[in-house]
Design a protein that fits this description.
alpha+beta; Glutamine Phosphoribosylpyrophosphate, subunit 1, domain 1; Rossmann fold; seven-stranded antiparallel β-sheet; six-stranded antiparallel β-sheet
């Protein structure tokens, strides 16, 4: 069980003129690196001819100047950073997925998870479709291709596909002449667009990617909305809007998104400070310094300090060249990464009572190691505060928490968990207060809290459906 599996990041740009767009996509993927560190890819459309490059690893390992120049110039590009929520970490699962067929080439990038993948893929296989990956994204690509064979346009094919899938999806789709962005009716995963001075239109998972390429943010894509961009401008199709209540993932604000992003009108940085303030109100403690665990615990720690009046200090230094600990494939490797990823600043914590603020606890292994680091640096007391409620349930919408078995909050009380991780006390964010923070900024909007509350906004897939394709491949290899 990893600490938390990251989300994917999608990006697309339509330009009125041929340009070396892969370089722009590269900058955007760097800005979205936090959403996926397993694989990266870029596909360029040059007058209907699609060239692409993708591979396993972080952006700067998959791409260099030579690879970007080799892709050349064009008018449309789509790009993707991946972390596997469905599908194994193999090269075939890297995106974009490129499809060549009689109605024109297509490239597709997807962030999210479908809940009816197993049924859809089984039906497609029975019709003779041959799959090269274990991702639900390839299911989406096949469905669009099937629809396109009897539709008059790519956007109608995408709309037809959307009627068949259920779950979380933020998509960017590239055809020979169009860039299409679509978000599921629940709005689980973020998606926004902006424009550049030369008239280029940019679509991205987060607004920080628009900033990275110099685009001006226009607005978020509405839940259920499809946006079509081509030489005729920007068109919005809202046929699926309002079909269900919105269910934005609240964990995006707690952990996934970059603090400098604005998701659906809410500043991530501001939300995390507010989370920290509520932590201080709900779980006060006599202490000397508040320390945040880099990176996503820093803003909440600042909020805790502001509310409690306890000084904020930099007590842990992160090696910025090391990825998030859950990216490592095995537990032993993750343990090694924790040791080299974070280093305590002894002057901040020595002889002091420390409030240590982090974003989440999944199985407790990483938290235990961090508490130990702070104690070894001389802290007299360590009081752990978590800016997320306890994880109690699997997620089927893009967060790779697929079993209650290893969730420490399902097996132990708060007091028992504090003892296991070596903390003097432990306090979690109250779910009601977390909802209050986001709903205060956007009244009336719904949020998905299933991983905390067990209230799922869709039907959940059958037991084991997320891993059956991986199991099938393993059996075939053996």
């Amino acid at each position: 069980m990893r600490k938390i599996s990251e989300e994917c990041g999608v990006f697309g740009i339509w330009s009125p003129e041929r340009k070396p767009l892969p370089f722009m996509a590269y900058y955007a993927l760097l800005a979205l690196q936090h959403r996926g560190q397993e694989a990266s890819g870029i596909a360029l459309n040059d007058d209907g001819i699609i060239r692409y490059h993708k591979g396993l690893g972080m952006v700067d390992r998959v791409f260099n100047r030579e690879e970007l120049e080799k892709l050349g110039e064009g008018q449309i590009v789509v790009a993707h950073n991946r972390y596997s929520t469905t599908g194994m970490p193999i090269p075939n699962n890297a995106q974009p997925i490129v499809v060549r067929h009689s109605k024109g080439n297509m490239a597709l990038c997807h962030n999210g998870n479908l809940v009816n993948t197993y049924q859809l893929r089984t039906a497609l296989e029975n019709e003779g479709c041959i799959f090269h990956s274990t991702t639900d994204t390839e299911v989406i690509a096949y469905l669009i291709t099937k629809e396109r064979l009897h539709c008059g346009s790519i956007e109608e094919a995408v709309a037809g596909m959307a009627a068949k899938i259920e779950g979380a999806y933020s998509l960017v789709v590239m055809s020979p002449t169009k860039l299409i962005a679509m978000r599921d009716p629940h709005g689980f995963r973020p998606l926004c667009y902006g424009v550049m001075e030369d008239g280029s239109v940019v679509v991205a998972s987060e607004s920080c990617a628009l900033d990275a390429v110099g685009a001006t943010f226009i607005r978020d894509v509405k839940p259920g909305e499809m946006i079509v961009i081509d030489g005729n401008g920007i068109r919005s199709d809202e046929r699926y809007c309002g079909k269900t209540e919105t269910s934005h993932c609240i964990f995006e604000y707690i952990y996934f998104a970059r603090p400098d992003s604005v998701l659906d009108g809410i500043s991530v940085h501001h939300a995390r400070i507010e989370f920290g303030k509520y932590l201080a109100k709900d779980h006060p403690v006599d202490a000397d310094v508040v320390v945040g665990v880099p990176d996503s615990g820093l803003d909440a720690a600042l909020g805790y300090s502001m509310e409690s009046g306890i000084p904020y200090g930099i007590g842990l230094l992160k090696n910025k060249y090391i990825g998030r600990t859950f990216i490592a494939p095995g537990q032993e490797e993750r343990e090694k990464l924790v040791r080299i990823k974070l280093n305590p600043i002894a002057e901040t914590v020595r002889g002091k009572r420390v409030v240590l603020v982090d974003d989440s606890i999944v199985r407790g292994t990483t938290s235990k190691r961090i508490v130990r680091l702070v104690r070894e640096a001389g802290a007299k007391e360590v009081h752990m505060r978590i800016s997320a409620p306890p994880f109690q349930n699997p997620c089927y919408y893009g967060t790779d928490i697929d079993s209650r078995e290893h969730l420490i909050a399902c097996q132990h009380s708060v007091e028992e968990t504090a003892k296991i991780i070596g903390a003097d006390s432990l306090g979690y964010m109250d779910l009601g207060h977390a909802l209050e923070v986001v709903q205060r900024n956007c009244p009336g909007r719904g949020y998905c809290t299933a991983c905390f509350s067990g209230n799922y906004p869709t039907e959940v897939p059958p037991e084991g459906a997320k891993s059956r394709f991986e199991e099938k491949i393993r059996k075939e290899k053996s």
